[in-house]
Amino acid sequence: MSLLTHVLACLFGLGSWVTICGIWVELPLLVPQLPEGWYLPSYLSILIQLANVGPLCVTLAHRLRPGKLNESALIYSIVSLGAVATFLMAFFWSQTVEVGGVHRSLPLFLLAFLVSAVDCTSSVTFLPFMNRLPPVYLTSYFVGEGLSGLLPALVALAQGVGVMHCVNATTLSHASLPGNASWEPSTQTELTVLSANNSTAESDSSLVSNASVLTDVAGSVGLVPLYQPASFSAKAFFFFLTAMMLVCLGAFLLLNCLPCVPREPSPSSNGSQGRKASKAEQTFMISSASSKLRSNRRFGTGRYSWPEIVYIFVVLAWANALTNAVLPSVQSYSCLPYGNVTYHWSATMAAVANPVACFIAMFFPRRSLLLMGILTVTGSAIGAYIMGMAVLSPCPLLVHDIAGSVIIVGAWVLFVLTLSYVKVIIGVILRDEGHSALVWCGAVVQLGSMIGAFTIFPLVNVYSLFKSGDPCNTQCL
After folding, report:
1. pLDDT at residue 3 above 80?
2. Buried b vs exposed e over 1-20: b needs ≥16 C-beta within 10 Å?
3. N or C: the chain end with fewer CB closer than 10 Å?
């Protein structure tokens, strides 16, 4: 039954971030068809941070009423809510509501907020529940958590989201675009849409489906990005996400109810044995120096000092700020100048690196604080290179050299691999420190992600520190 428990723990972790990750990889298909256009990702990033009210309430409940929160009932509720919200998203994501004379995607925003609250709250509910199982199953949970980002990305790639080819605009004036293929003009160009019979076509706010010609201000014609039609619809993709949430719900049901699933002994089960200890032994234990030291530390088992605990949580917040908010916000700026193929390879392989790090931790579960620091510095240095290439966009180093593409893809893989391993190490360490440590672990994960998001958002959207380039016509010296 050990293998069964590993599989169930993995499937349980699969539902932790699958909906948010799914929405993000589906954005290239949603953005052309919604009135917010490319402002949609910034709106969603704010909604995700507002959804942190969920883990905040759970953390306060643990703090103010310790031991009173029914975690199993809460997990049943939030996973069910996530499944229902994702199912409704399949039908209402394209619906709009007029607000102040402007159409807004309020149904999508509401449902996105609900699934974000579910995923964010999973950080402070799923991990504490895993505390009931032996420590060996925690790594399997982290593998599932990594797969929650990998599977939607692979399905989106199979769907054809974001797959682009550069074509000469003159050829588009003689043939209609296939299916729902669309292309997007750059900021330096103006758009003229012509039908196949050379008559003027009405503008479509969702996507361009007629023959098209792109001319710049000078009147010259150049290459334009042509986005291929998806293999299946957004509705089918959201049905897939719903199925993943139902799998998570079923795995939790079995983990919680199957008698063959191993359990960690609860503190109350050892109470009768403790009462049988002699008074002399109790006096000796109370007066021992090690017990005094543990009581003074007042965190978990007392294995780590307060400076070490602060160090662990600071590293955890830093790693999550980089991997969950800061660097993903600039991934397109760091990769797209090298080409669309480079961008998709970096996104896919970076998603693969997360579960790979968890598999490595399964066989090499190191708890060394020194190793944690070395890997954090290494990952941060790699992240600094990625950030540097994003700042240099649209003309980063080696932009016209295949070596530049290889380096940036490798940098993304190593960046995610090292910091994901750091996060797994911290999860294993805090798991040994008890239930309260895991609750604070989830809270710090969300805190770090929130700080990272609110830091990078104005740099990208307000101060325009990063410059986007034309994927087909970028010219660098």
Report:
1. yes
2. eeeebbebbbbbbbbbbbbb
3. C
